[in-house]
Fold these 2 entries.
Entry 1:
Amino acid sequence: MTSKEEKLRKTRKKLCELLQDALMLELTTIPPYATACYSILEQGQYDRSEPTIVNAEPIEVIRQVMVEEMLHMVLVANVLNAIGGKPELNNPDLLPTYPGTLLKGRGPTVHLRRFCPEQIKSFRLIETAPKDTGPAKKGDYRTIGGFYTFIMLKLEEACDVFGDDKIFTGDAKRQISNDDYFGAGGEVIEVIGTSTQRRDAAMAAIRKIMEEGEGADMGDRAGDKDIIPGPEGREDVAHYFKFNEILHSRYYHPDDSVNEPPTGGDLIVDWSAVSPMQDDPCESNYEKAPELAALSAEFNEAWTGLLDGLHIAFNKDKSALRALVPNMYNIKFLAQKLMRIPLPDGSGETAGPTWTYLVKK
Amino acid sequence: MGTVMTIHDETHDFQGFLIVSAALTGYDSAELQGTGCAKEYWHQFRQVLPKEILTEFLSFAPALGKKHEDKIIRQSYLSDRCLGPVSRSLIQLWYTGQWVPFPQEWRENYGASRFDVVKIISTRAYKEGLVWDAIGAHPQGAKQQGFGAWSLEPPKQRGAGE
């Protein structure tokens, strides 16, 4: 092997590792967001005869963020597949556990907690834009945005040195399209076409992730240029600002400055209408409660099924993606069930999902 | 001190209520609490039953979950002139979220309660009825299973093949 070929091999391997890390990064955010979202009591505490959904607005805000994270996973998988990588979704050595850190210890710590101001503040921290991308470009990234800045730089470098056709060698059949994806969170970008087109599409995909996440480089506007489907056609704001909306009980106007509080309409938040789930639920809390352990296992089986299904969809059969929709609803109902059951320790706190991947024996 | 005792007794009674409910419904007490309706059902149950009947109803709880559970359920609950109708209403409550009033004969013998009327306890009670889980379906108009669920096999019945 010539030294240039060896360099190309190493560069491609490094790019695949970075994108695999990005895939896990997106995945890591989903359980904390979902847990907080599902801990919100939908109804039943104030109303007997007149059904209203308490906290409907924060539920919807978190849900929108969550489905965009799912879209980001698909986008990252498309880029990784485009450069001939293999997205791994069910490798227990790579999967997140909680509490855990983002970016392999460089980013903030994430916990599984109920819907509470501290948790929403920690979500806001996760989605914070880097003030200065200088260090990130040298590989010293501490935020999600900084990490993607670094990935884009490395990808461009590789393409410039070796040529687009030497980098984008993946099988086009692996690309998830809008026909395969359920359409939650926005449009999928397929990384297809000539090698130059693929390079442009890959960059566009990563830019989309960054814009929807912490809203970096948006020209001081909170809006992220996506239009939320609905009668009003309201412009969406980036995740950082969505969490800020909950904390301020007020929506952003898309033209609001990123440095000022939101100035849009009211957003009603009731922090008390929430299941008192224990922080960072873990299996050891259920050791003396076999009935709880059984329900927790049922949840983890559903979660495992989802990850296995995603792995198949990204590596073998795209149509597996569609079949996962009922699985996701099941995960929600099982999580809500766990969060209604008091722990046997008499603390008044309830059980919760641990989001553990079950390794096959 | 008196307050502490009351709280303790209520907790104890509530646990007993869950144990008897579990024996009558076939769902364990974690599953029952997972409906999120246990507290409101307990409230409804206490409202409709005279105190001494409630005490008798809960008195078998310590013996349940053991060898003779089936016999106790059949003889002391379902076949009992007083506790039989009570048990049937409670089973229907857990399965459908609806309180089904006692028969006229029962009222004549044990007294009528103004709370003993037919009603769905709450919107959640309808959604969380055990019947939906038992038949592998979802309540109409709620808890949809998601796109394409109709093409999947129903979930395996709990305890099937055990």
Entry 2:
Amino acid sequence: MNFSLLRNPNTLLAATVVLIAFLIPLFIGSNLYYLTVLVLMLIFIIYASAWNFLTFSGQGSLGHAAFFGLGAYSASLIAVRMGLPSLVTLLFGGIFAAVIGVLIGLTCVRLREWFLAMVTFGFAVIIQTLVVSQLAPVTGGWDGFPVPKLVPSGIQGSLMIEYYLILIITIATILLFRWLLKSRIGLALAAIRENEIEARAAGINPVPFKLFAFGISAFFAGIAGSLEISHFGYVTPEIFGIDLSFWPIIYSITGGLGTLAGPVIGTIVVTLLWDGLNAAGLTYARFIIIGVLLVLIIIFLPKGLVSLPAEITKRLRRKDA
Amino acid sequence: MDVSISILSQVAFWGLYSGCIYILLATGLNLIFGVMKIVNFAHGEFLMLGTYITFFLFVITGFNPYVLLIGSIPILIGIGVIVERLCFRPILGTGKLNEIFISLGLIYIFQNLVAMVWTDEWRSIKSPFADMTIDLGPLQLPLDYLIIIVVTIVILVSLYIFLQKTPIGKAIRATSQNRKGAMLMGIDVEKINMLTFGIGAGLAGAAGTLWAVSGQVFNPYMGSIPAIKGFAIIILGGLGSIPGAIVGGLAIGMVENFTAFTLGGSWKDAVSFILLIVVLVLRPTGLFGEEEE
């Protein structure tokens, strides 16, 4: 056992968070509402981390709901048509989303940021349009269709099992991202993000790396989508809506863009705020409050909550001087 | 051949009319891009606000909806100026991703604000000229569509005169051509940013009024589809080019209506996106876009 790893405060913090995540159902286990909030929180941590992975390569997407929804639809269609369990088909969902992601990435890798944002933004809207019109015979149009649950609800404590299952998937996802970013791939992505021309000069061909980032990001967005749908047990085209493209962005930006911890912290904070506002009776106004929050954070805390301790010490020091 | 010239020219006329609304939207986007070098992704929401302001004024005043352009344009200019001052000015130049994501926040705010005030039901208003057509031989031209085309031309000509002849218009063009140079000539570029953003929003507001008058339905979330068409147009016509926006707008209007005519109405929205992708694959900088930076 390497104890020096535990001396790193960040690792220690992460280990504490994981420990709390494992223990928390023991305290609230009987309250299904809280458990549902936690399950959705985990799913969105996967989704936000997947979205955030794309920004490591200097790309950004305004329409990740497309991949979230495509994953959900393909996984649940296979589950319904072939009678496979959701736990298996969610992999298909991820793979299908990744294939489409790479195809979209192929048209985008050479593009400047504006065009990339336009393509991704448009893609989600167009997919939704197609799902409710051309593809309606397969997808059920606006009505959608029921999907088998991840853990059949007949089993004793099914929600609890689901929570631990998704918790393990979440941790595995984040560890994979961590490993990827520390590997040569991560270094190449950072080089491309900082200066694409210099990266080229250093012998890095940006195209495969950018496509890889797109594929991985879409893959996990698709996984998150299939998880969410198999949690609810029903899929409708609203999954492609602007809301779902918006969530990973606000989570990642609130927490801190381009950091591993950012999407995790952001998802926890914003989800709690979201449900808190609902409990406070601000059911509709909370949409606007969250929108304003995003704008304020981009303006005043562009590096997100992870940078807050550093910002505060900086401010305090400036006052001392 | 069953498809006669008269049906084809009828479809072309529809294309011309729907192109007009997109031209107004895309001209605003390009004007803003030219000066500020940002793409406002919430531009479709300005159109949506335009439809609702028209709807609101129409319900309380009962005026002819075309007159309500006098209301929707200035209100949207005001909203645009405020949005620029509060949201875009603080983050201008801090990174393209920030500038993109902030407009997503704006989309969220505007859509839900409108949904809170007017609910998310589909709405429409009825133009007083709704049932009138002008018969030109085999062609039947709805009067509303003709008025919309004329109004668009009037707005574009006034914009042209404003940009060419007035001192402020000249300052906008100067800033668009060379920001630093304009600054050195004593132009307050921040004020120009604010004003340009306002004018862009005002054009989208005008497009919104015309959208409502033409009898099309609207709800708080309807802005994204016209916005995507706006993007397709500025990619076709080149980022920042106003003549490009006009040509691109007409092209999209035509393509969309001929697609609806041949493949069916449900392809109408998808086709402009497909066009956008095709153009970007063939020419990553846009059809008439110049290599820059």
